[in-house]
Write a structure and sequence with these properties.
By secondary structure, the chain is mainly beta.
């Protein structure tokens, strides 16, 4: 696991044989918080930069109701927003709570079929707190950025044409 910090790029090594795959990162209240995409990673972790080293420790324990593949994380309006790639779901997690509330995004109503996305689903998330909007990145096949108005739950695809013209560019880190 690599981390870019004010002190440079760092490489994490695990204390155990379990692999820790950093998937998403958010800077929140002066802390670097991350999620990882192994099914046993059921936490939002806090990364603390110690200059030459850093530590990674559970910050919030999460209580998913099934196996998860966390990919993206952001924070806004007192909640964390976390994407799950394999089912392409988005969860809200209130500060200091393990409960994960799945957002009921009307994909079918908007004519968006997620059934064959699998491990090519939602990778990144960014919260526009001023407008109460989520941006969700679908990495590939086809890549897209969805705009979800959290008040109306309207889905739009404002960058579809531009993204179709891009070749080989990674859009997952919103």
């Amino acid at each position: 696991l690599k981390l870019v910090s004010p002190h440079g790029i760092k490489q994490f090594t695990s204390d155990s044989d379990e692999q820790f795959d950093l998937s998403g990162m958010v800077f929140h209240r002066g802390m670097i918080l991350v999620v990882a995409d192994k099914e046993w990673n059921r936490h939002i972790y806090r990364v603390e930069d110690k200059g030459d080293t850093f530590t990674c420790s559970p910050f919030i324990t999460l209580c998913p109701d099934s196996d998860i593949d966390f990919e993206g994380i952001d924070h806004g309006e007192g909640k964390f927003y976390i994407t799950e790639e394999n089912r392409s779901d988005v969860y809200e997690v209130k500060n200091n709570s393990c409960k994960m509330m799945k957002l009921e995004i009307p994909w079918n109503k908007s004519g968006i079929n997620r059934s064959d996305w699998g491990n090519r689903g939602l990778e990144g998330v960014a919260m526009d707190t001023g407008n109460n909007v989520l941006f969700l990145a679908k990495e590939r096949e086809p890549r897209n950025i969805f705009r979800i108005d959290l008040k109306s739950m309207e889905i739009t695809e404002p960058f579809r044409e531009q993204l179709a013209l891009m070749a080989g560019n990674d859009i997952t880190d919103l």
